[in-house]
Amino acid sequence: MVNAIRVFEQYFAAEKQTVLGLIGPSLYFRLRSDVKVKKPKTHSILASPNKYKICDFHYHVDDEDESQCFIDMALQKDKETIVLRFWRPINLKIEHGFPQPTSGMVFYDVSTSGLENIGVEVADFEASWGTVTFSAKRVERLGSPREQRT
């Protein structure tokens, strides 16, 4: 697999950013045996996101200003609903079976990886069906879902 990554890099004129855009930062660094990087740390925005279910998912696109694009994701556990906004999302993948289950959902803090405009990665540590994966510049916690529709 490392050889495949190197072929990707050569094909894209050794543009690490392009390769990262294709496969995501955490997978890239895990596959590269010659890059000594620790496993990405989980993001502090929400403990154990895998225990929540996605109850609302909204992707806002601003054709005039890409810095204003975002994904609002409402997550519910028991009677608690949390809304997270992911700014400047890229590489969104939604697998068959969405929105359930998302039992392996994890948020990685990749802000120290040196990648331009990528600070958080939404991934799945179980590779379960219904997986939602993407990267974003940053994430913030918002109010209730009703407040977001104004």
Spell out the key features of this protein:
19% helix; four-stranded antiparallel β-sheet; 150 residues; five-stranded antiparallel β-sheet; single chain; alpha+beta; 9 strands; 4 helices
Report what the structure shows.
- The protein is an alpha+beta fold and 150 residues long.
- The chain has four helices and nine strands, in the order H-H-H-E-E-E-E-E-E-E-E-E-H.
- Helix 2 packs across helix 3 (25-31).
- The chain is 19% helix and 34% strand.
- The longest helix has 10 residues, at 2-11.
The poorly predicted ranges are none
Q: What share of the residues does DSSP label as strand, in percent?
A: 25-35%
Q: Total number of helical segments?
A: 4
Distance between the termini: 47 Å
The gross shape turns out to be: globular
Instruction: Say how many strands there are.
Output: 9
Structural class: alpha+beta
Largest sheet: 5 strands, antiparallel
Mean pLDDT: 79
Short description:
The chain is of the alpha+beta class. It has helices at residues 2-11, 16-23, 25-31, 145-148; strands spanning 41-42, 53-60, 70-77, 80-87, 90-94, 105-109, 120-124, 132-136, 138-142.
How would the blueprint of this fold be written?
Blueprint: H1 2-11, H2 16-23, H3 25-31, E1 41-42, E2 53-60, E3 70-77, E4 80-87, E5 90-94, E6 105-109, E7 120-124, E8 132-136, E9 138-142, H4 145-148
Antiparallel strand pairs: 1-6, 2-3, 3-4, 4-9, 5-8, 6-7, 7-8
